[in-house]
Amino acid sequence: MRMVLALLVVLAVAIAPAGAQVLLFEDWETGTDGWTDYGSGPFATLDNTQNTTPGGQWSLKTADNATTNYTNAKDYVWATESPKLWVVSWNFMHKSTTTREYLQIHSYSGGGGSGSLQQLISLGVYNASPADTTKYNFRVAVGSVNWGNTTIARVPNVWHSMKVEQFLDGTINFWIDGQLGATATTTAVYGITRIRVGSGLTNNNAGAWYDDIKVEIVPEPGSLVALGTGLIALVGARRRRA
Ligand SMILES: [Ca+2]
Question: What is the pLDDT of residue 65?
Answer without folding.
Answer: 87
